[in-house]
Amino acid sequence: MTRVYVPRDSAARSIGADEVAVAILTEAALRGVDVELVRNGSRGMLWCEPLVEVVTDAGRIGYGSISADKVGELFDSGFLAGGEHESRLGVVDDIAWLKDQQRVTFARMGIIDPVNLDDYEAHGGLRGLRRALELGAEATVEEVLASGLRGRGGAGFPAGIKWRTVMQAPADQKYVACNADEGDSGTFADRMLMEGDPFTLIEGMTIAGVSTGATIGYIYSRSEYPDANNTLREALAVAYDRGLLGADVLGSGKSFDLSLRVGAGAYICGEETAMLDSLEGLRGMVRAKPPIPALEGLFGKPTLVNNVMTLGSVPAILADGSAAYQAYGTERSRGTQVFQIAGNVERGGIVETGFGVTLAELVETYGGGTWSGLPVRAVQVGGPLGAYFPADKLDVSLDYESMIAAGGMVGHGGIVIFDETVDMSLQARFAMEFCSKESCGKCTPCRIGSVRGVETIDKIREGVDTANNLVLLNDLCELMTDGSLCAMGGLTPMPVQSALRHFPEDFQR
Amino acid sequence: MTSRHATWSVEAGQQVLDSMPSDERLILPALQAIQHEFGYIPREAVTIVASFVNVSVADTHGVLTFYHELRTTPPAPVTVQLCMAEACQAVGVRELAQDVATAIAPLGQRSSDGSVDVVEVFCLGNCALGPTALVNERLIGKVTAESLVRAVATAREGVNA
Fold it and tell me: Which domains, ranges and CATH numbers included, belong to chain A?
């Protein structure tokens, strides 16, 4: 019996992984060969999906970019024994693109069957939760604090401080709310973890619950992610069935209940306080802070709000200790970031590595330049609210402080590459248009400012009184930055002003 | 053409609500449950949801109009959600949207035969393999107007089956 892996990740499925899986089973039956097919998560090398892996004595051998009509050929070339074929990539763990990464949060990604808890445990799963239960609440929170872990959703707030605040808050009920509303274009790490290794998120949330005293948790996901939601529901059922969740977490006597909630298409619900309103079933309106959610969050109770990547990093921090996690990264940006290379890119996918990698390394060394073959012109880092960098300024180090110094932000680690055909005034216009469509409407700079921004950029694009309208646009950007209630209106100027700064020629007609 | 959804009635709507778990008896989950079952949220349902959750009709209506995805009219048998966000813009989705307008329907509109709604969305999480569309619940990467038309035909068969 030979074991064959074909990813169930929705990116792999979007380009034919299901058809490949069916073809392999059909062909095997036809030839009378015994094949055990496992649907794993994706390794993150999205440029060679669908990636078929075969378990051999030499390791897992990969065959990249397989389509269903190539499956017959694969059997002919003896791929079940690791045979030669033009698509053969060798031992997957030895592929430089993968091997040179520092996989911590994504350590099991693409390796295990996502909904098989035994497979999860066999690959180091649940060690973190077991250690947290031994350590007790305070020592666990200290470990998270010592790791230097900062919020991976974008804001970069020290996770341990948030955890301690919730732990110390007296209340009859506390909550853990995982922000899985990954709406930033160019980001898909949360989705991949939920589809490819959901127990890591469940374990991270359970550690958060038992150490902060929160007995109820919610994962707030997106309706745009049907596959991730289905996989999570499957994993949650297994976790309850096996006593990882419920009234007696792993026999510790501690209780933690976790369920999935799905949004309804509103980018703003990725803002933590809007998400809390949405979790309460209301319009996703941003709340003024203070009070901070750690003290008055969901239903007015102390609530730990963290992103999928933040909570997903916790099991590894607890399992191997804060010092091991601290060893990655640079200065005040400790640990690893799961970068996502996207857009017009030759080799797109997931690169998890310590903070301090340069943008150029990700775009050129990993990304291999553009998919269109044309020169790179602009790279947007950190989602629709992140800055555009020109091709000659990609030597910036990707860590929280360096990115701020360079006029940008790491955000959720999404990197979107554009070739030379991009019209940056159109991209600036889109930033304002997106804000006008997705603003919750609570504060004026965001709600009205974004509409005025679109109008002003339209005038500039038409060459109407350009010099004065550019002054007006910059003035509007400053007002939105300073006067908005949350990051939606406050950061929309970042892509706009970076486009103005680095690509002024696109605004002169 | 058969539908992938149940036919609305007040009784059927009430049944859907009554079967909801107690911690989900909130405005948004209640509206989502109705839409999941019937494909849209009929006017009558707003009143029923309001009294079920014990809030005003105005509050319920406020939630209904806030979320892009909640709808007050029945959907076409097939919904195409085309990602129009930056990562897909970088690989030509603006041009693709024009081809889709000719081949199926413009963004925000229904095809002339009434079988397909084309909707704009921002990010389907397939940003390294764009342009991307979601056809009912099936994600299609590296999508072209031709592959989208094929996917729509497959989805239509699925609905009719």
Answer: 2-96 (3.40.30.10), 117-326 (3.40.50.11540), 330-419 (3.10.20.600), 424-507 (1.20.1440.230)
> A343 and B141 in contact by Cβ < 8 A?
no
**Residue carrying structure tokens 């804060």:** A322
Q: Which of A:249-278 have CB within 8 Å of B?
A: 259, 261-267, 278
Q: Tokens for A237?
A: 């059922």
Model confidence at B159, pLDDT cuts 50, 70, 90, reads confident
Provide CB contacts within 8 A for A324, sequence distance 6+. none
**A224 shares contact with chain B (CB less than 8 Å):** yes
- Cβ distance B28 to A225 less than 8 Å, yes or no, reads no
Structure ipTM = 0.96
Hey, what are A47's tokens?
Answer: 């440029």
CB contact under 8 A, A187 and B90: no
Helical residues (DSSP H) of A306-423, grouped into ranges:
308-320, 322-326, 359-360, 400-405
Nearest-neighbour CA in chain A from B9: distance (Å): 23
Report the distance separating Cα A388 and Cα A496, nearest Å: 8
Q: With an 8 Å Cβ cutoff, is A227 touching chain B?
A: yes
- DSSP codes, chain B: ---SSPPP-HHHHHHHHHTS-GGG-SHHHHHHHHHHHHSS--HHHHHHHHHHHT--HHHHHHHHHHSTT--SSPPPSEEEEEE-SHHHHTTTHHHHHHHHHHHT--TTEE-TTS-EEEEEES--S-TTS-S-EEETTEEESS--HHHHHHHHHHHHHHHH-
Quick: pLDDT tens for B48-69: 999 999 999 999 999 999 999 9
Domains of chain B in sequence order: 10-66 (1.10.10), 78-160 (3.40.30.10)
> Is pLDDT above 80 for B160?
no
- Chain B residues in contact with A267 by the CB 8 A cut-off are 122
- Per CB-CB distance under 8 Å, the chain A contacts of B124 are 224-225
Interface test with A, best of B69, B80, B93, B123 (most A CBs within 10 A): B123
CA of B114, closest CA in chain A: separation in Å? 23
Give the pLDDT band (50/70/90) at residue A201.
very high
